[in-house]
Amino acid sequence: MGDNPIPYYADPPSYEYFLQHHLIANIPALIGPKLIDHWEARQKWTQPITSETFSNEKCDDTELNGSLSPHPQLQPNYYYLKQKFGSAQVQVADCNERDFTDQRRTTLPFDDFVDLWQQTDKLDRHHYYLKDWHFVQAFPSENMYQVPDIFADDWMNEYWQKETEDDYRFAYMGGDKTFTPFHADVYRSYSWSSNICGVKKWTLFPPGQEDLYKDKFENMVYDIRHVDPNIFPYFSQAKRFVVYQKDGETVFVPSGWFHQVENIGGTISINHNWLNACNIEQCYQSMVKDLRDVEHSIDDLKDGMDPLEFVTTCQQLLLAHSGWNWKTLDRLLKCISTRLIADKNMHTQPSLQPLLDWQLEKIDRVRQKLGSEPFFSQYDFAV
């Protein structure tokens, strides 16, 4: 793929091509506006940009070849958004206030957030960023977007919507210079992010170099723009790729790719996390690593517990730390395999997903690994 392995598709790729070259290969992609231009959100949530709302000054950021980063072509339709969704409660991050590995967050009425969002004080810049808004849950009757076919095979949201009151479907909205700190996605899942308007600068790091991101205490880099080489002496060695995602474009982020995202102009995006047969083993390995970290963190208490009590305590801590545990994964796999087996018994091969036998084989492999965990068979899944 050359120096930059992230291909651009002006025309959306077919599912079969995307499956082989991106989902299974675990390679990022940037897809042009044709993928989402039909969305209602693209028409109603945006308006033409004006010189008063976005400075024509040169951007501080440059692409790898030294050219200036792109400017947005559209801006949020603040009036429409306030009138339509103003009463909703949303989670807003202050990008100027670090909170451990994240940013300090507060809950605000959406219309109050939009007022903050519209502030254009050039000395202060925008630093309030609406994140992780479960928009579809908040407004289920609003058909503002549709999941593209190439991302439709989504076990995560299938399970969470069916078995819980949660999901991993989000809207993000923020002003110029707001950002998301350096991280890899929840469960090491896939993610896709479609820009309704604005520009995002993505810096993506291929998997397998995580040790370069840590200090001697195992703390991770927080903001890649401000890294002390005395604290993180190896971070500069990490391979990375920079992509500018313009209005209407969609980024696919594969499993385990750490990244940092910075907004240029007033930016709105729709983001989903998801997993399926193609990355379920990577997601399971992420759980295993998190579990080992939990076990190590309370190792000094192990001698005072019987073995099953220690396992149960670790599972409770894993759920609190990582958002899932053995029980969650076991139930997800049962939920998906029940559907797949029903399709197989009906001699049907659903479109927009891999062959049924291949998917079931992936589930069996993870179940075998899960079953080999100490005390898995004795673990009380009702806990």
From TrEMBL:
Q: Which PROSITE patterns match?
A: JMJC
GO BP term, example: positive regulation of translational termination
GO cellular component term of the entry, any: cytoplasm
Domain (JmjC): residue spans on this chain: 136-291
List the GO molecular function terms: 2-oxoglutarate-dependent dioxygenase activity; sequence-specific DNA binding
The record's Pfam families line, in alphabetical order, gives:
Cupin_8
Q: What is the name of this protein? A: JmjC domain-containing protein
The organism is Absidia repens
